[in-house]
């Protein structure tokens, strides 16, 4: 009898307190690092993205609860800032500038080349998860258009040949 009651209680507890996912644990830790302060929401989201590579939609309710804010408010902030990724991205993120100066210097051809050579559309990730290509609008490197950014590294005057060299550099780095 006692075992039956204990079993039922455990089942109820299980239902009422679902085990947090790994992502939720990371998110709650990020909130705690910033004192669960709503004013620190942007820092918290950057922290989450740094830990997980993106900000999963499924974790937004946990952030909202920790900061005592509505889910809609958190969702609004995550979707307003394009820097926050809502889906997993590749190991390397390549940002290709499509703003005016880079447009004038041939970024459209560069984008087409990138899509063809990696076999993925802008905004997509290669099948092996190694590279994501994204369009951005000005990397502050206009004097050296067309510009791209790989991780934190800026490259200027990038044509198709230079792009391929940069990609094979990443592949070599991965093989080492
Ligand atoms: S327009 Fe491309 S870096 Fe500024």
Q: Could you write a compact summary of the structure shown?
A:
With 176 residues, the chain is of the alpha+beta class. Helix content is 51%, strand content 10%.
Beta-sheet strand percentage?
A: 5-15%
User: Between the first and last Cα atoms, what is the distance in angstroms?
Assistant: 61 Å
Number of helices: 8
* Overall pLDDT level: 89
Content-based structural category = alpha+beta
Lateral arrangement of strands in the main beta sheet: 2-1-3-4
Tell me the total number of β-strands.
Answer: 4
Biggest β-sheet, characterized? Answer: 4 strands, mixed
The secondary-structure element order is HHHHHEHHEEEH
The helicity comes to 40-55%
Low-confidence stretches: none
Distinct ligands: FE2/S2 (inorganic) cluster
Radius of gyration equals 22 Å
The best one-word shape is elongated
Structure description:
With 176 residues, the protein is of the alpha+beta class. Helix content is 51%, strand content 10%. It has eight helices and four strands; from the N terminus they run αααααβααβββα. Strands 2-1-3-4 form a four-stranded mixed beta sheet, with helices on one face. α2 packs antiparallel against α3 and α4 packs across α5. The longest helix is centred in the C-terminal third of the chain and has 16 residues. It is elongated and about 50 Å long. It starts with a helix and ends with a helix. 22% of the residues are buried. Bound molecules: FE2/S2 (inorganic) cluster (FES).
């Amino acid at each position: 009898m006692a075992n039956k009651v204990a079993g039922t209680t455990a089942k109820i507890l299980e239902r009422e307190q679902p085990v947090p996912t790994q992502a939720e644990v990371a998110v709650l830790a990020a909130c705690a690092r910033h004192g669960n302060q709503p004013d620190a929401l942007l820092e918290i989201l950057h922290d989450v993205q740094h830990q997980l590579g993106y900000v999963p939609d499924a974790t937004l309710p946990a952030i909202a609860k920790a900061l005592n804010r509505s889910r809609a408010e958190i969702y609004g902030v995550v979707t307003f800032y394009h820097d926050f990724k809502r889906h997993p991205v590749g190991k390397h993120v390549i940002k290709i500038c499509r703003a005016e100066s880079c447009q004038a210097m041939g970024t459209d051809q560069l984008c087409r080349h990138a899509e063809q050579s990696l076999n993925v559309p802008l905004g997509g990730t290669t099948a092996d998860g190694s590279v994501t290509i994204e369009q951005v609008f000005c990397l502050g490197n206009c004097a050296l258009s067309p510009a791209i950014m790989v991780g934190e590294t800026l490259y200027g005057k990038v044509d198709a040949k230079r792009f391929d060299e940069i990609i094979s550099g990443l592949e070599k780095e991965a093989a080492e």
